[in-house]
Design brief:
Elements lengths: L19 H17 L3 H16 L4 H28 L20 H8 L2 H4 L3 E5 L6 H14 L4 E5 H10 L12 H4 L2 E7 L6 H14 L4 E6 L6 H4 L4 H13 L1 E5 L5 H13 L1
Parallel strand pairs: 1-4, 1-5, 2-3, 3-4
Length: 275
């Protein structure tokens, strides 16, 4: 009869390894459970991560960290894509591709501070003022993209589009408009203010929007009109202009851009190329 040798270190009993078929069945069950929980990336990535864990002798906490980090990153990418699509923001204009060298009046440090989203958390307004073609819309869109990336909902409107939507809702009380994008979004961007004079009705609707969103959510407005010219723009009504500016400027960041027009530069380059 054979007996175990005594005196050596005690080795704990190890459970027998699962046969390949059983291991495969368990993996399939785990994948199915992850799918049912809505963890689609984790379900897709699990086999590869398990293989790497075996090869690199990763512990269980490291394996779980990689699996969950990948799931969170995938969800964040999906959230950003969906939010950008719903925002109405035009594509392709970011802070990275803004030509600061062409517009030295734009302070990069101020844009970087705005890109952190602190002004959005404080529900401040942002006015981007300057003549046509200096990059106001580019900066507004770029900051809108950053707002989405940092977790805020965004709605982008050309002024004409916004006025059309507000005229349709003119007879609806503001409390019943809470679900409208231009009321509920964390940031509403209104582009191209100042090219057309407001009617008195439009000025009143604009006041209603500014008043409702005051200290509830941020507004970003691009305009080719200096502040002193707003009464003329807003149907010549100094009373309503004062009421609008009182709310906008109470807690507001202002970017004044003075420089050459990108469009004129591109036209000059095009003409020089032909000559």
């Amino acid at each position: 009869m054979t007996t175990k040798a005594s005196g050596g270190p005690h080795e704990p009993d190890r459970p027998p390894a699962l046969p390949p078929r059983a291991a495969s069945a368990d993996l399939g069950m785990l994948v199915d459970q992850l799918v049912k929980l809505g963890l689609d990336f984790a379900a897709e990535a699990l086999p590869a991560i398990l293989t790497r864990a075996v090869k690199e002798d990763l512990g269980t906490p490291t394996l779980l960290e990689q699996l969950l980090r990948g799931e969170l990153e995938r969800r964040e990418e999906r959230r950003v894509r969906t939010s950008l699509r719903l925002s109405g923001l035009p594509t392709g204009q970011t802070l990275t591709n803004f030509d600061f060298a062409f517009q030295p009046a734009v302070q990069r440090s101020k844009l970087e501070a705005l890109a952190t989203g602190a002004w959005l958390r404080e529900k401040q307004a942002l006015l981007i003022l300057g003549p046509p073609g200096v990059g106001k819309t580019h900066l507004a869109i770029a900051l809108g993209v950053r707002a989405v990336e940092t977790g805020f909902s965004v709605a982008f409107f050309r002024l004409e589009e916004l006025l059309h939507a507000m005229r349709k809702d003119a007879d609806v009380p503001p409390t019943r408009l809470r679900g409208k994008k231009y009321m509920k979004a964390g940031l509403v961007i209104i582009d191209e203010v100042g090219f057309e004079t407001f009617t008195r009705e439009e000025a009143n609707l604009f006041f209603r929007l500014v008043s409702y969103r005051y200290q509830r959510g941020s507004l970003c407005i691009t305009s080719n009109k200096a502040i002193k010219d707003w009464p003329e723009m807003l149907a010549g009504d100094e009373v309503i202009t004062t009421a609008i500016l009182d709310r906008l400027l109470h807690s507001c960041q202002v970017l004044n851009i003075r420089g050459r027009s990108y469009r004129l530069r591109d036209l000059e380059d095009d003409l020089n190329g032909r000559s």
